[in-house]
Amino acid sequence: MKHHSIGEFEELVLLSVAALHGEAYGVSIQESLIEKLSKNINISAVHVALKRMEDKGFVRSRFGGITEDRGGRRKKYYVITAIGKRILDNQYELRTSLYKMIPKISFGR
Amino acid sequence: MNAKLPKWPLLFLRWFCREDYLDEIEGDLTEIFYRQQHSPAKARRQFLFNVLKHFRPEFIRSINLKPQYNYKAMIRNYFKTSFRNLTRNKGYAFINIAGLATGIAVCMMIFIIIQYQTSFDTFHPKKDRAYRVLTEYHHEGAANITYDKSVPYPMPVGLKANFPAIAEIAPVFASHNDELIVAGDNNAPQKHFKEERGLFFTDPSFFNIFNFPLLAGSYESLKDRNTVLLTKEIAEKYFGDWKLAMGNTLKLQSGGFMFDHSTEVLKVTGILATIPANTDFQVKLVVSMGTSYLGTLMKESTTWNEAAPDFGCYILLSPNTSAANFNQQLSAYAKKVKSAENKDNYIIQAVNDIHYDTQTGNYSNKAISHQLLNVLWLIAAFILAIACVNFINLSTAQAVNRSKEVGVRKVLGSNKFQLQIQFIVETFLIVMIAVILAAGITFVTMPYINRLLELSLSFSILNSSTIILFLVAVTVAVTVLAGFYPSVVLSGFNPITALKSKLAAGTTKGISLRRGLVVFQFIIAQSLIIGTLIIVKQMDYFINQPLGFDKDAVVNVPYRIDSIRISKMDYIKHQLLSINGVQAVSFSSNTPVEDANDTWSTLKFNHDIKEEDFKAITKFADEEYVPAYKLTLIAGRNLQPSKMTREFLVNESLMKSLGITNPDDILNKEISIWNGNIKCPVVGVLKDFNNRSFRNSPAPLLIATNVTMYNQATIKLATTNIPATMQAIKNLWEQTLPGFVFESRFLDDKIESFYKQENQLAQLYKIFAAIAIFLSCLGLYGLASFMAVQRVKEVGIRKVLGASTAGIVYLFTKEFVILIAIAFAIATPIAWYYMHTWLQDYVYRITISWWVFAAGGLAAIIIALATISFQAIKAARANPVKSLRTE
After folding, report:
1. Domain ranges in chain A?
2. Which of B7, B104, B610, B703 is most buried when burial is the number of CB atoms within 10 A of its CB?
3. Is domain A8-100 in CATH 3.30.1240.10, yes or no?
4. Going along B259-391, which residue ranges are E strands?
5. Residue A17, SS3?
6. What is the pLDDT of residues B324-372, one digit of tens each?
């Protein structure tokens, strides 16, 4: 198995997929990220990240139904896989442990 | 938001994006487009921007297109199934391939012939500006105009002086029956050669107009007297090697009677490269114009009123001169130089039209009319059409056998288009084999066609790009023509009915089309049969129609006139008459009927000042001419023996042209010809005989004695033991006149040669009619044999129920006979119309009688019945137990 590295933006997208559980597709992911990060994100970046993570096995996809506002094109829904979840957990643990190692420094005023 | 998605970015996205990502990406982009709140313009810009952002490796289709279908394998499969299908139905494949190959071979042959015929004199770089001058004769009545390639002697000099638009002008005197004498090596005896045609007198400007390259020497040498250019072939024939010929001399005894009968010594000053076959200037020797007194005659003659026989004039116009304009000036000039009574005119004709002018003719006697070329095209198209029809008929008839295959293929996911491709590929395979076979057939039969049409065609696929192009075009055309309809029919089957084998009953539409095609084939075949019968009948008429004189067992021996020979003629005549089997001997200028070699004279009658407005054929002959040819006198007497010109015989036509009805009235009246050089009384009137070919009615005729004008002996033979008599005659000539090249020609052969083109046409029609009927029958045979197989059960049941063999044969043949009868009804008027038009060209022609059509129709029916009956009888005699047992 390939080494399970994950980039920062990929991690954000993966988190969104996990958070939007069952309702995650390109546009919904983009919107939630824009909302949370308060900065503009291009849809192509989201698509690239999703494809890469699908290749790495972090997410799975399925086609949804056709809706009219999509010009007759199907949605592609993404859900997180067990590996994806473990990667998120690992990242979370790594950050928390590192965070905990920070000595109590006072940035006194 | 009612903005529309921008079209081009969307198409671009669809073009580059991977198929499996397209739903997601296009869908998302569309959703964003409709959801956002900006102005439509900005939304569109953003859409484009988003599309461009997606244009990156992850989303782009892979370059090495993964095909959806395995085309290569499928095409290989098509070829494989086609091949299997051909080997499975060997008979069917044979009929198809043989039919198409024959049709394509005929087409190819005609194409090669036409290509050759249209290439005549197209290789001269200045051909667009090259013309020949024709004399336009105005006969009695304004409508009667004929053209001749002979012009008066002063013409070249006169035109050159008066027309600045002429860049080059070449006088050409086409001599014939010339004898050439070459000294033998080391005191060996002289070698004598006779050239019937191909000796031309001209000057260097001829070669500035026409492109005949030199191997050695120069054209300019022709400016001097007594120089000659030989072609490579002639130089080799005379001197062994053309390099030896240069600078050598040979003696010329020219055959044309316009000369002073002397012997000229000519120096070889140039060698011409081989003259191509596709030129009407079949040059062998080119003698300088100044030789003999021809040059003097040209410079000094003022006789504009008479065209000099065999004397022609070729010109090269300077660029940007219009021929029509030039003709106007030429007419004005003709009026100026000719006497007031002479209405004749001059006209120029483009050199590239010469080959198609069958009326005026040319030096090669190979003219072919545009009409005939068109007929050939038409026949090629028809024969190919018949072959294609065969193919369509057999393929659609076979369709029922293929229905299962089509059903299975469709069930397994083939679509209509793929099936059509499959059947087109199958057709293509058959056509390819047929084309290769046709090339083989053409190659093998080419020598026979060359011999028949007296052509020198060559067939080399590799050398000729046009042939390759033609073959490719034919392959494509036939594949499409023959393959399209069957492929549509076959691919259109409904798989359910096809698999249930219910198709046999439901193909009536196909059958009625097939019927139509059979009718079409037989219309063509029957038209050709009827046409052939009429042409052959007309030919027979030409050959066997009484001419008004005796042409059987008459042999002509041409000789050249000179003082020695003239002195020996009496002796020869005496000796000839002593040979056993010789009945009569006469000396004359030519035979009673000539096609183009006659001398025509204008005449003045009974001391009139004005010339008559018609011309008369003028022949010179001794007193034995009338009895030797068994000509009939209706008034007066025969000529009296004389060496000079003292008396005229005329014919009825001449008398009638003068407006005289009673033959006795013309006797002892004076006729004057050749500007008064010959003035003699009329002593006899001959009954009209055919003094021209049957295309024309008899022309006015004058016959007079003059020993210097005779250039042939007419010998009437007894019909027994002709070879021995001929040998004796030959020996006599050669002993009496050493160095004489003995030639002889039977008059009936000569007359037959007048109708050479008709004869060749008849031969061609015979071949084409045979091929057309063969192809039609091939198709019919295939159709009948197929029907026999299809209806085997029906026949079995009929037999069990008591049908007789005859009844079943009748069942099979009835339908075809009806079809052929319909074809006959349509073919008859078409054939009648065309043959009627064709016959109008001949003054003497047969009337088209009903039996020709009856014979044509009957022949078609008999041949067709013979073809079908084999299959029909086989089917009818089959044991019903066998056919009914298997189910």
Report:
1. 8-100
2. B104
3. no
4. 264-272, 285-288, 311-317, 345-350
5. helix
6. 889 988 888 888 888 777 778 898 999 999 888 877 878 877 788 888 8
